[in-house]
Design brief:
Blueprint (H helix, E strand, L loop, with lengths): L2 H8 L1 H5 L4 E2 L7 E8 L2 E9 L6 E8 L2 E7 L14 E2 L3 H26 L8 H9 L1 H12 L8 H14 L5 H18 L3 E5 L4 E5 L5 E3 L1 H10 L8 H18 L1
Antiparallel strand pairs: 1-2, 2-3, 3-4, 4-5, 4-6, 7-8, 8-9
Helix pairs in contact: 1-3, 5-7, 7-8
Length: 254
């Protein structure tokens, strides 16, 4: 079974309709299709497993952050039972796998790539230091206005505040960003029995967990949601829930 020939037959023509061209091989196990949108390169990659016999994986990412990869099974509603790699046994089953990947890409993946292509605002070193040094002040300003309870569920209400602010204001209000980031940081701090600190590796503000390890950067999380609220994984509540599940799972395995 020649994967490249199958890609040329079942994948290339359908992706070409959306401006994606075959761009060669990232390595000897992958085949790439790319297009450029506003100087950002979008990648659709078909990767063959070294370990799963005749296993293929769909990967979607952009040049803005090549480590932010979405896999094919993640585009499906019920993806818990599916692995990264989908196996095929012959040419007919290879065709089925490729056609399913292309269908997912056209229905959901291309829109996701467009969202991933939106630049995310990045704080300066001085802004990160400002939040660390004055987080108590910024939190008190936020709390006096909203009096939220620090329960993680309130992060959904914080999202609504950000969306409302964005609709009213074109320019970024850094006082608002600092206040909201301080509140988000306090939610993480309370839940994980942590503390405010500095991530030496990334040279930025962070919330440390109870063991003193960097856990979450509230400033980056708020700016990420502000920049691209349509991206589901950037939601403050959804992101928190994911971190919480991973953290608790890791503790169970200790």
């Amino acid at each position: 079974m020649n994967i490249k020939k199958a890609l040329d037959k079942y994948v290339g023509p359908k992706l070409a309709v959306y401006g994606f061209d075959y761009a060669g091989r990232r390595d000897n196990l992958s085949w790439m299709y790319t297009r450029e949108i506003n100087k950002v390169t979008q990648y659709i990659v078909f990767f063959k497993s070294r370990y799963v016999p005749n296993g293929l994986r769909l990967e979607l990412y952009t040049s803005l952050k090549i480590t932010d990869v979405t896999y094919g099974h993640q585009l499906m509603e019920d993806n818990l039972s599916l692995g990264d790699f989908w196996s095929f046994q012959d040419e007919d089953s290879l065709k089925e796998v490729l056609e399913e990947f292309v269908s997912l890409t056209i229905e959901k993946g291309i829109h996701l790539l467009d969202l991933k292509s939106i630049p995310i605002l990045q704080p300066t070193l001085e802004q990160a230091k400002e939040l660390l040094e004055n987080h108590e002040l910024w939190f008190s300003k936020f709390y006096l206005k909203k009096k939220f309870s620090l329960d993680p569920s309130t992060l959904k209400e914080v999202e609504d505040l950000i969306l409302a602010k964005k609709m009213k204001q074109v320019e970024l209000d850094w006082n608002f960003i600092f206040e909201v980031s301080a509140y988000v940081g306090e939610v993480y701090k309370k839940t994980f029995l942590g503390a405010w600190g500095w991530n030496e590796y990334y040279d930025t503000v962070t919330i440390l967990d109870s063991q003193g390890e960097p856990l979450a950067n509230p400033l980056n999380k708020v700016l990420r949601f502000w920049s691209n609220p349509e991206m589901k994984s950037y939601g403050l509540l959804e992101d928190f829930q994911l971190i919480y599940r991973l953290y608790m799972k890791e503790k169970e395995n200790d």
